[in-house]
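Render this sequence as a predicted structure.
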Amino acid sequence: MSIILAIDQGTTSSRAILFDDLKPVFKAQHEFPQHYPKSGWVEHDPKQILDSQILCIKEAFDFLGKQKVDAIGITNQRETVIVWDKDTGIPVYNAIVWQCRRTSDFCEQLKQDGYGSMIRGKTGLPIDPYFSASKIRWILHNVDGAAEKAERGQLLFGTVDTWLIWNLTGGAVHATDVSNASRTQLFNINTMEWDEELLQLFGIPTSMLPTVLQSSDNYGTAHIHDREIPILGVAGDQQSALFGQSCHCTGDCKNTYGTGAFLLTNIGDKPLFPASGLITTVAWKLDGKVTYALEGSVFCAGSVIQWLRDSLGIISASAESEFLAKSVEDNGGVFIVPAFTGLGAPYWDSEARGVICGLTRGSTRAHLARAALESIAYQVNDLITLVRDAGVTLNKLCVDGGAAENNFLLKFQSDISRVDIIRKASVEATARGAAHLADIGLHGRNRFAGDAYAEDSIYFRPTMEEKVRETLLHGWDDAVGRTLSK
């Protein structure tokens, strides 16, 4: 047996989950403040990220007593940028979060200057403020003295995994894994190296960058509360969830239904660059072999249910949405497009805004609740359609995240996407992926090959008539057309 500590550092909270042979036995979680200095800007205090994570780890150690922790795996919010002084360890600015849009104008200029194809071909990513490179550039251009310090080799950059590793190892290790590196827009996913042309384009010195390691590798020794524990696995949160869902074969797919939704599909050892709104990303690297994934993002998934609860007041708890949705035979012709912060793939329209279509005097709050849940499934289906259009045959869709507890949503997703859906008993897919990667590093092999978590799974299979499905999809496409800005 092996006790693995999974550090799961998210956008709104930090978590520590203990796994005993990949079975979760303890979880600690602490939220930390969000900072919004201007409209569209999102920041975190890096020290608060670290402090909240250390507090979670301490609670995990208290649970264990004197029992040994064999290894640490880390998974993290991706694209978020931290820049710090390598001598003092003090950040020169707050962490700029993946959600932040402050670099929109610069990114738009890059598009107009014709860099889109080059950047996409090297990184698999569209030009967008979402990714790290333009955020690093903003810090260097807007923090007094930062550019000069960076040129002198005094500053270090990292995504959140790198910040945690550097602090946990006492500044001994400045490293990231391939999955996080692939989200920076500075990493060439064909050569698997930092790209000099991109570094020059964004004006970022090579000396700032962490060493890129495999997803299961030696990331040094963490020194925490008188314990010394090797850090042996690292992956960005969505890639970690893909691994934690045992999506190890080409065509295996997972979707995380959280505030947003993230669909990742394993596409094997060669990258695909479909002419659609999908992102090509590195899933993981093990034993020298790279696995790639196609990824699509839905900006508003579970948050549309929060909107029903907190803004409209038509439900008192998120779980009530399922009861209401099932209380009516259909959506009554009502469609909601929750483009509250624009639309992600395949549209990538940041100026799109939400609409409700098809309201009649007979429309009720039940129809609105049903339309809201259906809107999540339609958005995910748009992504699944793109994956299929890229020539990938889906084997299965594994699901996790808070909204995946909603049976109505998963059955409707299965129907509208014509795919078998698997919801496993344990919802800790993201943390389990990090623990699994660390376990591989600890034992030098994958002790849990295949689907080690299939027991107690619930399956949802499509039964909807094709004519009904086509009518619903036509209604959704019409509704989306009303939201787009261009």
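Summary. Residues 200 and 206 are 9 Å apart (CA to CA). The first strand starts at residue 3 and ends at 9.
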